[in-house]
Amino acid sequence: MAVSERKRRELEQREGLILDVARRLFIERGFHGVTMDRIAEACEYSKGTIYGHFPNKEEIVFALATRAVHRTHSLFERAARFQGGSRERMMAIGEAYAQFVRREPEDFRFWQMLRPDAMRDKVSPDRQQLFLGSEQSCVAIVSGIVRDGISHGDLALPDDVTADDFAFGLWSLTFGAYFLDDSNELAKSLAGRDVFRAVRRHAHALMDGYGWKPLFANWDFEDTLQRIRDEVFPDARL
Amino acid sequence: MAVSERKRRELEQREGLILDVARRLFIERGFHGVTMDRIAEACEYSKGTIYGHFPNKEEIVFALATRAVHRTHSLFERAARFQGGSRERMMAIGEAYAQFVRREPEDFRFWQMLRPDAMRDKVSPDRQQLFLGSEQSCVAIVSGIVRDGISHGDLALPDDVTADDFAFGLWSLTFGAYFLDDSNELAKSLAGRDVFRAVRRHAHALMDGYGWKPLFANWDFEDTLQRIRDEVFPDARL
DNA sequence: TCAGTTTTTGACGGTTCGTCAAAGGAAGGT
DNA sequence: ACCTTCCTTTGACGAACCGTCAAAAACTGA
């Protein structure tokens, strides 16, 4: 029956509407400044209808975070296709992450909001699994590049450091820096004006420390950065 | 008058009691699982009395986080007195942080809880200032060691990287790693069994990348770690 | 013992959450 | 045109929690 098909589509569409409206409200007034009643009102539906789609506010944030990870993933995919050496391609991933944080800082925040235990407890395992899967594919791209570097002979990790370990290190450094810069006054003042530059510099130091060739001193990475921006993110206004 | 003096002491003592009880409850049931009524009940005081000390739950968490930073600071101070080269002393700081995270993971969580905007908005500027000051002194110790390294000729940072930048990098890497390991399932699986070892290894790579002497390859840092543990944290059971 | 002062209490109004019985509406049959 | 059945939408409602504040209790010194 064609009708039920149409209805299904309408439902899905409404899910998108709710997310869009909620996103705007969260950005305007913060997580705690938004009530389900207000979301319902802004959607021009009643509360019960909203609850039909999402069993609570936390699930909405989770869905928003999942959308954000999806967009990050597509940025990573573009970056991974950059034509260059393994270390240059990793740099492209770093730039993709930076673009995401810079252009959609609010979505980066949704990602961070997932912390408080309230989230974990109230969100259905299904949705959590969905989210984890998306994150997984982002990490897979990074790990893939690390492995490429190893198999091409650009990178020789110590015996006690796996490709995953290494990916974790880069992730920690990058995420930690953006997170602290966004949440901690003191860290913000330490980082100085341009966190993105700082992160790039530190990531290079980390890669140098593990001997990922070409080393920072032996290559014009400023030029690489420019090429990444021109080729991978031509639409980005900086 | 001696009486008012005694009362002041009693009040202070009660503040400590409230914090201890609240800490236990938060650990048991999470931030959202604890109500002011429950805290009051567990303290065997009425709600009004609790509100006389703390105007809301957020302030309690903030106070707990501040206590945690204080303890971290005293660990840092001990670590900074370690007899050794500048890089070894920095390693002692890293070990101090690791000890804190390992031994009091719940307090590390209080530190992280400060994120949600709800906190910032509801907590008095005074208490926030107090917290910031404590963090400040922790960072001061780290920056001091970096500067020592520079002045002793062990470390020569590039022109565009300040001592603060560098401290920020180490902080990001370390904090990011422990934070992710604690909050993100995927990250936990990447990090492997021993995050502390991973963080040490990555921090060494970062320091190597900036050329902080002695380099990882030219020094027995396993031995240094052992000495740090013996001398600085003899009470720690690992 | 008592009046004055301080501290403690818990009932209360206000807000938000999440539910659910009832109202509303579409599709199909007579 | 009207009715029946089934699905969707609604918003009033109970429960939980917050933070306040007037009244009660406790304490103080005379």
Describe the 3D structure.
Two copies of one chain form a homodimer. Chain A has helices at residues 2-29, 36-43, 47-53, 57-80, 86-103, 105-113, 117-122, 125-151, 163-183, 185-191, 195-209, 221-231. Chain A is mainly α and 238 residues long. The first copy, chain A, has twelve helices and no strands. In chain A, 40% of the residues are buried. Chains A and B meet through helix 7, helix 8, helix 9, helix 10 and helix 11 of A and helix 7, helix 8, helix 9, helix 10 and helix 11 of B. The structure holds a DNA duplex (30 and 30 nucleotides).
| C-alpha end-to-end distance of chain A | 50 Å
Helix content of chain A: over 70%
Low-confidence stretches of chain A: none
- Beta-strand residue fraction of chain A: under 5%
Helix and strand sequence of chain A: HHHHHHHHHHHH
Number of strands of chain A: 0
In oligomeric terms, what are we looking at? Answer: homodimer
Task: Give structural attributes.
mainly alpha, homodimer, 238 residues, DNA-binding
Write the layout of secondary structure elements.
The structure is a homodimer of 238-residue chains.
Chain A: H1 2-29, H2 36-43, H3 47-53, H4 57-80, H5 86-103, H6 105-113, H7 117-122, H8 125-151, H9 163-183, H10 185-191, H11 195-209, H12 221-231
Chain A binds a DNA duplex (30 and 30 nucleotides) through residues 3, 7, 35-37, 45-49, 51-52, 55-57.
Can I get a quick summary?
The first copy, chain A, is mostly helical. Chain A has helices at residues 2-29, 36-43, 47-53, 57-80, 86-103, 105-113, 117-122, 125-151, 163-183, 185-191, 195-209, 221-231.
